[in-house]
Amino acid sequence: MTPERVINTAIIGYGNSGRRLHTPLIESLNGFNLCAIATRKTSKPNSMPSHCRHYSVDQLMTEPDISLVIIATPNDSHYALAKQALLANKNVVVEKPIALESSQARELVELAKQKNLVLATFHNRLWDCDFLAIKALVKNKKLGEIHSYAARVDRFWPEVIDNWRNNNEYGGATWELAPNLIMQSLQLFGLPDSVFADISTQRSAADAPDNFYIRLNYNHKLCVELRSSSLVKHSGPRFVIHGDKGSYIKQGTDPQHHQLKIGVAPDSKKFGEEAIDDWGSIYNAENDRDEETLSPSPKGNYLAFYNKLHSAITAQGPSPVDNDSSVEVVKIIEAAFLSSKKRKVIPLLVAAKI
Q1: CATH superfamily of 126-301+332-348
Q2: Chain CA centroid to CA 184, Å
Q3: Which of 46, 74, 149, 313 is the most exposed place for a label (fewest CB within 10 A)?
Q4: Helix ranges restricted to H, the chain
Q5: What's the pTM value of the predicted model, to 2 decimals?
């Protein structure tokens, strides 16, 4: 990227997301200058870049030279901090979900429009290597018309960590992991007609839901199934997709999170490159026999989010993530909780009125 302008940037929250994800991405791009970090700690964390100033949230909001604020805090603070930043005339990146209520999410989107500011939810999983591969498969009709799409993210966390993720009101696997899976589905297939879900807590010591099954229905022509559990030691395929011309099976996960955790630079040649053992397989019927074809994924590219963000801020380009879709993600999660509670399919139009 050859930027026309360097964007002075601040991060609110310096846990795993702020420290291990946003910081290395921002620091590897010339178009951004990470100059400030706000945390709840009264002293400057040792892991903070030496060139960054350490502020309270209120101090950061009053700094006129900061034009972008990245919110990497627990879910329950996303709405309030994003609203505060927009009112302070800052462009905003907020971790998913954008808010915990669809009305709050819509309010943020409208506020950003009114103030002519860029607001983007950090749905980085849209640039996972496997999702990029699937997006191409769906676009080029390699599998024909898709009738079944299943995606899952499982973990084996038998011990419950007592932090914000275990809060029943705003934590748990549904609010943490479902936004990624739902946003990917929206990108591929658009808005579903209805939602059915089963959301539960499997670990006896857990307060927040740690298991979900969400089914998105599309006029009986397509069924999208999204799953997660915190008690799966060995998960099955990450993606299973069936069309009328073939199937796609995908193991493994995108490597970018792990690479950032172990210190691989986002601008290195190996960043985002998937191991051969994790390549997906395409199965189709040609010449009256089933054939398996290994299908390599393109490189994952989380940097694309920030490259697109830079263009949106400096050149009025499109936001890296559609805000209407970010709102729809929250609406679908609301409908999923309602479905699980009432044990029934929830039409999305009905969910919007409740």
Answers
A1: Dihydrodipicolinate Reductase; domain 2 (3.30.360.10)
A2: 8
A3: 46
A4: 16, 23-27, 57-61, 78-87, 102-114, 129-139, 172-189, 256-261, 303-315, 323-342, 348-353
A5: 0.93
